[in-house]
Specification:
about 350 residues, alpha+beta, Immunoglobulin-like, 2 domains, six-stranded mixed beta sheet, rod-shaped
Amino acid sequence: MDKKILMLCVVFMIFSTAAHVHSETIPANIWEFTEDYYDVIGEPQLTASIVGNPEYESGETSTIFIQLMNDGLIFGFETDETPSNSNETMDAQAELDLEYDVTTAINIRGTLETEDGNAFRVLSGLQQAGSLRSSETSQPMEFDIEIFENAPAGTYYLTLNLTYQYQYDVKVEGYPDKEFDYWYITKNQTIPLQIIVKPRAQFEIVKVSDSLVSGGQGVLYITYKNTGDEVAEDAVARISVVDPFSTTDDQAFLGTLNPGGSYEAQYKVKVDKDALSKAYGINTEVKYRDEHGDTQISDVMKASIEVRESVPLVQRIGYAGYLLVIFVILGAAGYYFYKKQGNTGK
């Protein structure tokens, strides 16, 4: 048996299963001719890179654009058979021209996976990238990702899984009415990629203290903590109040908050006399400068505060205490008049 035919039989055994599974996407493999003049040995080789800035923020939903390039190379060239007449010479030349398509990747498909499912997730499924000849670049493949709010800053690894087909061999026969036999196989590539989650300051409310009563004025204490991994410079907290609250003191300077640092802000707040006795939510946020000197504003947080009814004096100190207050007032008044009359008598 011809060495070339034997090798192709082995190739057929290896790839027949793949050809069957992907029969809808791989071009039909036909191998009926006996003449095979040349072998150009090579294959596609895809590389991938992220287009644009690979830095993202925690809590962000964004799109990663991944561009492919085909660095396919030809490794060798073999002559299997020598043409015996002019017609075969024409067939051989046509075959040689087609053999160089060995480096072309067709029907490129890809999926993106993350190695750290606790930090972010990939929202997009299978994406198409068309076909690429050697040295060509693709239109970017687009994958949507979600960075979780609690994702620490750092470098994270992604895996781009690619599947495509390429022409392994071709035969030409029958000049001038040439016919063609093609043999395509499937190749898989796994390409690592990296993205960066940028450090940032994050804030949460860790304590709220208040002594607010309907119809009164009090001080609202809110403790903010930087739970992120970036220093917040010149941080200023602000509350947004609506009925039944009002204030002329809606901002508090927090200063510099390092990661893990906290600060208690104070706000003077008035409460309408008709305010119901219940818990209310007040929106608050923190404005600060990041490590690059850019102004940032935190997510809106909600501080839960309790409003209580104004309690009459007799209920606050009790009936006995109320009588004692009256006796003290009467005694003071009597003492005042006594002293006044004494001074008059003199």
